[in-house]
Amino acid sequence: MTSDYHHISVLGDEVIKYLQPQAGQNFIDCTLGGGGHTERILEETGPKGRVLAFELDQRAVEASRLRLKKYQNRLIIIQDSYVHLKEIAKRKDFKPIQGIVFDLGLSSDQLDRADRGFSFKDHGSLDMRFDEKSQTLKAEDIVLYWSKDDLLKIFREYGEVKQVERVAQGIVAWRETFLKQKQKKLKTSMFVSAILGILNIKESSLKRFRIHPATQIFQALRIAVNSELDNISKALPQAFDILEPGGRIAVISFHSLEDRIVKQYFKQMSLDCICPPESPICNCGNKPKVKIITKKSIKPSAQEISTNWRSRSAKLRVVEKIS
Predict the structure, then answer these.
(1) φ, ψ for residue 28 (rounded to 5)?
(2) CA atoms of 222 and 138, how far apart (whole Å)
(3) 140 lies in the same domain as 190
(4) CB atoms inside a 10 Å sphere around CB 181
(5) Residue 243 domain-assigned (yes or no)
(6) Do residues 222 and 233 both lie within one domain?
(7) What is the distance between the terminal CA atoms of the chain, rounded to a whole angstrom?
(8) Pick from 22, 76, 92, 177: most CB atoms within 10 A?
(9) How many domains does the chain have?
(10) What gap in Å lies between CA 101 and CA 93, rounded to an integer?
(11) What is the pLDDT of residues 131-187, one digit of tens each?
(12) R_g (Cα) of the chain, nearest Å
């Protein structure tokens, strides 16, 4: 089932450089995927260091178990969301923890399999669930049944979609006709055609667009289906709580919404004073909780981008826990 699974982890050298794994240390990989980052960490922390890894996607879990078979005594794989990070680490008595990594991007396997519905270039069902067993909400459900106001909200907040009113209103009008046809499944290709029609864009003119007109709409749907922004907002404080002083958190994000959440959280945790701006003197008694290790986000090298084009939008940010 997993022999055809493929994914290349991004910024692998940089993750190791900034997490600084040492022999015998314990790490958490919140987004196991194909196991690339976990494998590198296990190599560096041998012979006794351990990794607790989270992954929702069943195909990724099975592929990583196979890939990392020789490390099975030092690896715990949990098929669950990293939003339960603190609870599961406690339940597994996994400590002390010297580092935690999040890679928030989609895997190539998810993007390239038409039946997952993540890519507008395919003809599979409009699904977009990371885990088809535990998650019930599909992108198709949002498109066909959510109210115009709810569509406006997710397209505006999660996709930063231009002409958002036109798009939401157009989808509501288009779906009335689609539902009357009583087709069993909404295919990605059908929905892309509908978007192009709503925006009055001909397929023959798509080459003039830097990014496909459906890109931000698909991003918004995927984020809504998988609660991505909520999950990272909930997980970062948990990561800080369970991390040992001196330990590091590394986060790789792929779009501005995720990166903004990570950047703001790290900045807030690094502040010396949190008094209101109008306060003449500091009386809050606050102390920085983390040290920002990467003053600017770390991006892939030109060489990495040349071998893995999908890495081009990745950004890595790292902090170290002070107390």
Answers:
(1) -120, 130
(2) 9
(3) yes
(4) 6
(5) yes
(6) no
(7) 45
(8) 76
(9) 2
(10) 19
(11) 887 889 999 999 999 999 999 999 999 999 999 999 999 999 999 999 998 777 899
(12) 21
Does residue 78 have a pLDDT over 90? Answer: yes
Q: How far apart are CA 77 and CA 69, in angstroms?
A: 12
Measured distance CA(153)–CA(127) in Å, rounded: 20
Check whether residue 78 and residue 93 sit in a common domain: yes
Residues 252, 317 within the same domain: yes
b/e per residue, 190-220, with b = 16+ CB within 10 A? ebbebbbebeebeeeeeeeeeebbbebbbbb
Across the chain, mean pLDDT equals 91
For residue 262, give its domain range: 12-109+228-321
Q: Please say whether the beta carbons of 70 and 47 come within 8 A.
A: no
pLDDT at 15 over 70: yes
Tokens representing 1 are 């089932």
Same domain for 168 and 301? Answer: no
Tell me whether residue 2 is in a domain: no
* pLDDT on residue 111: 54
Same domain, 83 and 51: yes
